Amino acid sequence: MTWSLEKLKRSEEKIKHSAKSLEQSIKDQCSNLKKVVDRQEQALIAQTKAAKTRYLQRQKEMLSVYKNKHEALTKELELAKHHLENKQPVNFLMDVQALQQKLADLQKSQETCDVLFPHTSLSKCVDFRPTLQTLQGMELSHDSSSAELTIRASICLVDFRTGPAGKRRYSSAVVWQELEWRLLIENKLSTVNGGQKRFLSVFLQCLGRTDSQGAWSLTVATQLRILPQEARGQMFQKWLRHRYDSQHANKGWSEFIALEELEKPGCGLVNDGRVILEAFVKL
Fold it and tell me: Would you call 51 exposed, middle or buried from its count of C-beta atoms within 10 A (0-12, 13-18, 19+)?
């Protein structure tokens, strides 16, 4: 009997010891779990802060880029409008087509900022389209019966730097002296000193009478030129005189200027990869 009681007591002590061990183990596991949760929470807070910092930094960068574009385009538009209103040749300025491309890029930036950062209200910025329409109308307006005519075209050099020869671009056609005129710009590949060299071919084309009735002819002097787009740039120009008729409707140079010459550092004739060509025509 005594032996049984002692055995029972020992069993009870073992059970108590096991219970304490189990309780301690549970406490330790809970403590470790809390530490893990705390570390994950701190890591998540740190990640959230870092993400917020990156977001704010990205917002600041995008807004800065947008504002810089906004200010630059505003200045260019005002300068172009001033030159055109005073009938001065556009010097070291992008022409209307290039300004339109800049406007499109600006609007894309604005739309991106509006989507990513809806609280910045960039959509309320100035709408440049009316000003551009005014500039375009001023540039293309001319007296069809006057003694002089100016035609302008803007081209992207990337289109002419690579690819096969014969790639063409045209200016808008205008009516002058009851005839329709336009610029033709072409990519020409020539052999020079045993090697291949790319040129811009530039021609003034007369498309004939607007009513397509009767024979026609007109003798004019033409200055084909590339406008400088930087203060240090100088206009590149060539003169010709030609009698246009239905059999001789094109006149210009198949090797007007080599691309490598056009793109020389300091030349000042290229801006944002674009070149502005003009034909100044007079009787």
Answer: exposed
**Those residues with Cβ within 8 angstroms of residue 281's Cβ, 6 or more apart along the chain or in another chain:** 148, 149, 150, 151, 176, 181, 204, 220, 221, 222, 223
Report the distance separating Cα 208 and Cα 206, nearest Å: 6
| CB 189 within 8 Å of CB 197 | yes
Task: For residues 110 and 61, give the distance between their C-alpha atoms in angstroms, rounded to a whole number.
Answer: 13
pLDDT tens per residue across span 233-262 = 788 999 999 999 989 999 999 999 999 898
Contact 188, 255 (CB under 8 A): yes
Backbone angles phi, psi at 176, to 5 degrees: -150, 135
**Phi, psi angles (nearest 5°) of residue 211:** -95, 0
Q: Round to whole Å and give the CA distance between 244 and 209.
A: 12
Judge whether 73 and 106 are in contact, CB under 8 Å. yes
Contact indicator for 238, 200 with CB cutoff of 8 Å:
no
Classified as helix, coil or strand, 143 is coil
Cβ(200)–Cβ(185) below 8 Å: yes
User: b/e map of 176-195 (b: 16 or more CB within 10 Å)?
Assistant: bbebbbbbbbbbbeeeeeee
Pairing of strands 195-209, 250-258: antiparallel
CB 276 within 8 A of CB 154: yes
pTM of the model: 0.54
Per residue in 170-190, pLDDT (tens digit) is: 988 889 988 999 999 998 888
The pairing of strands 168-170 and 217-226 is unpaired
Residue 245 has which token pair? Answer: 């008729």
